[in-house]
Amino acid sequence: MTERNSVSTGSPYEPIIGISRAVRIGSVIAVAGTAPLGPDGKTVSIGDAAGQARRCLEISRLAIEQLGGRLDDVVRTRIMLTRIEDWKAVAQVHGEFFGAIRPVNTIVQVVGFIDPQWLVETEVDAVL
């Protein structure tokens, strides 16, 4: 059986929902939907979709690195927005992280998130 490793990033939602921030099985790392939470568990960059996207991707990068991966290993990202008009600002932040890597990506608008202050959530998949 392939070894399974997981990491938590301290989100207060992880134990409530019963999730890990990221799981690695073999060479695959899947990062859960990631909200723009600071180390204190509170929403960051309220009203700023680009700032929230940056925080989401920083959290994802840390989780991938804790499981032995790097951003260069990312093959798919998903960006969920409550305001589709934020897509260009958020896409620019995505490019700061992945411009040279160029994973596949989907950007969609959603009705809302658990916390109405969240404008963005991301998901990331990597293959080492």
TrEMBL record:
Q: Which domain of life is it from?
A: Bacteria
Name of the featured protein: Enamine deaminase RidA (YjgF/YER057c/UK114 family)
InterPro entries associated with the record: RutC-like_sf, YjgF/YER057c/UK114
What CDD domains does the record point to? YjgF_YER057c_UK114_like_6 (cd06154)
Q: Which species is the source of this protein?
A: Lysobacter niastensis
Signal peptide limits: none
> Which SUPFAM superfamilies does this UniProt record tie to the protein?
YjgF-like
